[in-house]
Amino acid sequence: MGGEQDQNQKNRSNDSSSSFFSHFCSSALRVKPLLSSSEVSVRTNSGDGLVRRLGMFDLILLGVGASIGAGIFVVTGTVARDAGPGVTISFILAGLSCVLNALCYAELSTRFPAVVGGAYLYTYSAFNELTAFLVFGQLMLDYHIGAASIARSLASYVVTILELFPFFKNNIPDWIGHGGQEFFGVLSINILAPILLVLLTLILCRGVGESSAVNFFMTTLKVIIVLIVISVGAFEVDVSNWSPFAPNGFKEILTGATVVFFAYVGFDAVANSAEESKRPQRDLPIGIIGSLLICIALYIAVCLVITGMVPYNLLGEDAPLAEAFTSKGLKYVSILISIGAVAGLTTTLLVGLYVQSRLYLGLGRDGLLPAIFAKVHPRNHTPVHSQIWVGIVASLLAGLFNVHVLSHILSVGSLTGYSVVAACVLALRWKDKTESQLPSASWREGVVCLLIVGIGGFGAGLFYRVDASFVFLIIAVVVAIIAAIALCFRQVYEETPGFSCPGVPVVPIICIFFNMFLFAQLHYEAWIRFVVLSVLMIGLYAFYGQFHANPNSSDTVIYYRAPREAAQ
Fold first, then answer.
1. CB 289 within 8 A of CB 102
2. What's the DSSP call for residue 401?
3. Cα–Cα distance, 418 to 424 (Å, whole number)
4. Could you tell me if 281 and 566 are in contact, meaning their C-beta atoms sit under 8 angstroms apart?
5. What DSSP assignment string belongs to 374-399?
6. Opening angle at CA 492, ends 490 and 496, nearest 5
7. pLDDT digits (tens, 9 = 90+) for 315-348
8. CA separation for the pair 125, 31 (Å, rounded)
């Protein structure tokens, strides 16, 4: 009798495990339906959605504010030390790569014109629920650590400017802004960084109009300072410093391109403002691509000035641009650069916090996170709970930890997001995907080919990084090319309403390959972070997300395809 009970309990346990796994698989493969173009309204759970206040100029400033921080005054010079004047080519190559990624974002932003979500939303509709949740996790860790790191840098720059006044000179303790003594290699008190984060969080909670005004002022100030720096520096340029143009060969220029690629990261923030854009179908592509082109022009101009002012091998490491002007007797420009750095870091931080809250809002609406994240303030029309949560996380990290030591595990989220977005462009254009939500054999073959392109890009990057035999590099490239050929000739691509990424499927394929090539250049700890975080996110999804998510729920926002009439 006891044996039968034990056997029954074991059977029930097996049935329960089987049921859990079955439910997990079916839930993980759910997609958010992309409805017909005739259904164009947007519904929110209680009518308290975000307000459309951002025009085309606001979106361009949003992208510029997110992309150009203090790095324009630092990274240009540090990379030039290795690449020489050829750093200009490094920025051009990286900029062109980002333009290709921006074209993919621009197309998808017009397919989903009305709501927040960005890369997470695109992945949810193109692939499945679990992949979208994993993309969110990788992006969010980048945003959290990045915000804390930027807040610390901003606090340090603010203290540096205050110390220009005699009253504050040598009277501000390190733990106020520069970061106090480290404990256990990572703990370090910083008081000013959380205060700055609280102020920016309050501005963002007040409304998108207020935060847009602050971003307008700071971004304009930053761009004006950069233009002044370029104009003043142009009169100090000695063209003989540009020769030799590539003293260490083309490989250093290419390596420099992989480094400066991350200086452009931020234009994707525009895609997350879709629900607050006045005319999303027209303005989002312009905002994404326009802001990126402005950033490319500014970076190239700064590169030409700094390498023309001082021989590349004499550039400083910590503040190369400021030191270059100081060496020419232009001390006041160095002060302007510090003010520009404060403005740049402020806008980067402001936009970063803004984007995080909108991503949390999207997941809260879809049930993948608790419903409190989906609540929008009825008067200010901002996701207050999401915004406060984002501010708390960033403040704790910035106030207690020296997050700069974690900088080498960043950029994983950006590269993951860019690669998946490029893949989404192809997947959403496949004819069988547009006609049915059920994946066909052809659709699965396409996904396998996308994975092979990505693996080929990572392999090529890895072989390039370790200076392996040229044969291995060629093999990786050939494998990716074979998969690309299959994607070109074995899939049928539909035209899309609104903005269309040119050169499909070639452009998205190049994006995936190069993004994964860059992924291989990251620190090995970044790869470990990718795997560990993915496992943790799968666990969170298994025990919470799969039971609460419902992409078809009437209590969530329904995402609609752009109407052809409005897109034209």
1. yes
2. B
3. 10
4. yes
5. G---TTT-S-HHHHHHHHHHHHHHHH
6. 150
7. 876 678 888 888 888 888 888 998 999 999 999 9
8. 5
